[in-house]
Specification:
With 252 residues, the chain is of the alpha+beta class. The strands form 2 sheets. The protein has a 5-stranded mixed β-sheet with strand order 1-4-3-5-2, with helices on one face. A 3-stranded antiparallel β-sheet has the order 6-8-7, sandwiched between helices.
Length: 252
């Protein structure tokens, strides 16, 4: 039986559509209520917010989840809850909404994260689908500032996201993006003795990620790039491979 694919009207999506094309695919913390969701928590929490836009609709949910959850985890917190926003342009159809919900919901369920609140709507000012996520996590321990002599590692290959985006511009589609997340590595490293700080690599590549660490903490870093592993094709893109989009890699 074909799934419903109604055209979505302006503004908030109807409860009927939410109940058949959004809620069933999300690990909800409780039945959705009016205006807001509620959670119980004790101790310190880490919070991060990220948008996902400009990628194929089937990848939007994946990236929205991992952008926000990875940022929380990099602060040595365990992602627990998420608030999401699914926004589409006028003329969008229910099928795209369902695809976005499935993409995010599948990742949330995999990592034990519940959806506690959200917004789903179409607006005239939106030109392409947008999915936003705010993640909350229970702090496990505090990061500490690196000390002189600490070693900086780049975990994961460099340039994979850029190679994928280039292939998209050439009309080639693949599921390689499903590996573009630092979250599994971050969760493993949270308990590793000697790991004092983590930061995911995103826009601006490895160079920008290192600069963000150095400028935020007022540190000087000495970097040797000769031992980095580049994804096949990254060094042939005609740009500095250390500045290429590289989501999935991690500074530790």
């Amino acid at each position: 039986m074909d799934e419903p694919d109604e055209a979505l009207g302006l503004g908030k999506v109807s409860r009927e559509i939410l109940e058949r094309s959004v809620f069933p695919f999300l690990p909800l913390s409780a039945a959705p209520e009016l205006d807001a969701g509620t959670i119980l928590h004790t101790g310190q929490i880490a919070i991060a917010h990220s948008p996902s836009i400009g990628v194929p609709v089937e990848a939007l949910g994946f990236f929205a989840f991992h952008y926000a959850a990875s940022n929380v985890a990099a602060r040595f917190a365990r992602p627990k809850h998420m608030v999401i926003g699914l926004y589409l342009p006028l003329g969008s159809r229910e099928g795209d909404l369902r695809t976005m919900a499935k993409g995010l919901g599948g990742e949330a369920e995999k990592y034990g994260v519940t959806i506690v609140a959200g917004q789903t709507a179409t607006y005239a000012g939106i030109e392409i689908p947008l999915l936003t996520a705010t993640c909350l996590g229970e702090q496990l321990r505090q990061p500490r500032e690196p000390a002189e002599g600490d070693v900086v590692f780049v975990v994961g290959p460099v340039g994979g996201e850029a190679v994928w985006l280039k292939s998209l511009s050439e009309g080639k589609r693949s599921d390689v993006w499903r590996g573009f997340t630092p979250l599994p590595a971050i969760l493993r490293l949270q308990a590793a003795e000697g790991v004092v700080l983590m930061h995911d690599v995103s826009e601006g590549g490895v160079t920008r990620a290192l600069h963000e660490v150095a400028s935020t903490l007022k540190l000087k870093l000495e970097v040797e790039s000769g031992s980095l592993h580049f994804v096949e094709g990254a060094e042939e893109l005609g740009e500095d491979p250390l500045r290429l989009p590289t989501y999935g890699s991690l500074i530790a």
